[in-house]
Structure formats: structure tokens, C-alpha cells
Design a protein that fits this description.
Helices cover about 30% and strands about 15% of the residues. It is of the alpha/beta class. It has a domain at about 130-185: Orthogonal Bundle (DNA polymerase, domain 1), CATH 1.10.150.320. A three-stranded mixed sheet has the order 4-3-5, covered by helices on one side. A two-stranded antiparallel sheet has the order 1-2. Strands 6-7 form a two-stranded parallel ribbon.
Length: about 190
């Protein structure tokens, strides 16, 4: 066989494989919640290494997005088909870690800012969601200044989201007394 036929055959094979993946590839199925019948406890998606967030607003394909734990908001937007040209990306933190079960709203330029309750930073009852809050938002907790707020955010970013309020005890500078002060003002997730 002549070399140009081998090259042409290789290119045709590459195009066929790429077309099959592009047009015929199946989306991955979400990881189901697994129930351990012996202990009657559920293993959540987060415990299984996956998180699901709802992406809405100025994205190409709004809806639920399933990502590996540790993913960032930017990855969630990419998984939702990317942002629309009208998206105001200065209104959201693209580097924030995603938290299972939260809503990420991408506003359009000129829209009013998304209320904190919708963005996932503040719970409906006004508590601060420390897994998604900025350092400034964490300082709104009683007795938490900028230094401790930065430690909370750094710990969360390095170790993943807090699962229970007591996980805050792992942050240097937070002891039982400080936790008792902020416990009623913190929402997890």
C-alpha cells in the first residue's frame, strides 16, 4: 500500500472516531444515592466524590450539572454549555468551589445583582453558607474578623466543603466557644 493511502486511511479513521464521539457519545449518568440497608444511612453524591449544582441564567444549557468534588464555579459553567455573550461574569466568583445542592445564577449584563438567597451564599433563614461565602460575607458572623474569615475560606478551599458545623473546629482559631457563638448563624451546606 502506498504511503498516501495510509495517511488518507488514518485521517478517515480519525474523523470517523471523532464524529462518533462528538455526535454519538452518551452523556454520563449521574451518580445515584446509595442506601446502605444494614445501617439505614444514605451515601450522598458528595460522599461518593460527586456534586450536583443547578446552573441557571445566562448559560447555554441551564439545568443540573454533575461534577467531581473540588470543582469550581467556572467548571460548572463550562459543563452547562458555557456562558452567553450577555453574561456578567464580574457578578460571580468563578474560582469559588462548588457545593453540592447549590444554585449558581449567572446574571446578564444590566440585570440587578442576584440576591444572596438565590446565589447560595445566604440560606433562606439568613444564615451564612460558609461553604460558598466570600471572606467579606464570612466576617458578618458574630466574632469573626477578616483574619479568621480568611482562615475559614482557606481551610474550605484546601480541604473541601464543611460537612457539619463542627468541622469548623478544624480551622485554626476556632474553638468550642467561638463555635458556640457562630453555630446559629452558619448554614451547612
Amino acid at each position: 500500500m502506498q504511503p498516501q493511502h495510509l495517511v488518507a486511511g488514518g485521517v478517515a479513521l480519525l474523523i470517523a472516531v471523532a464524529s462518533g464521539v462528538w455526535f454519538g457519545g452518551k452523556p454520563t449518568e449521574p451518580t445515584p444515592v446509595v442506601i446502605n440497608r444494614e445501617t439505614s444511612t444514605a451515601v450522598t453524591r458528595s460522599q461518593a466524590g460527586r456534586s450536583t449544582v443547578h446552573v441557571s441564567g445566562a448559560v447555554a444549557a441551564p439545568g443540573l450539572v454533575d461534577l467531581a468534588d473540588g470543582a469550581r464555579v467556572a467548571e460548572a459553567l463550562a459543563a452547562a454549555g458555557g456562558t452567553l455573550p450577555t453574561a456578567d461574569l464580574t457578578a460571580i466568583n468563578l474560582a469559588a468551589p462548588i457545593v453540592d445542592g447549590t444554585l449558581i445564577v449567572v446574571p446578564r449584563r444590566g440585570e440587578s445583582p442576584v440576591p444572596a438567597a438565590l446565589s447560595g451564599v445566604q440560606a433562606e433563614d439568613g444564615r451564612v453558607r460558609v461553604n460558598v461565602a466570600s471572606v467579606e460575607e464570612i466576617t458578618s458572623l458574630p466574632g469573626i474578623g477578616p483574619v479568621l474569615a480568611e482562615r475559614i475560606a482557606d481551610y474550605r478551599d484546601e480541604n473541601g466543603p464543611f460537612v457539619v458545623v463542627e468541622d469548623l473546629l478544624d480551622v485554626p482559631g476556632i474553638g468550642e466557644g467561638k463555635l458556640a457563638t457562630i453555630r446559629d448563624f452558619v448554614a451547612i451546606p
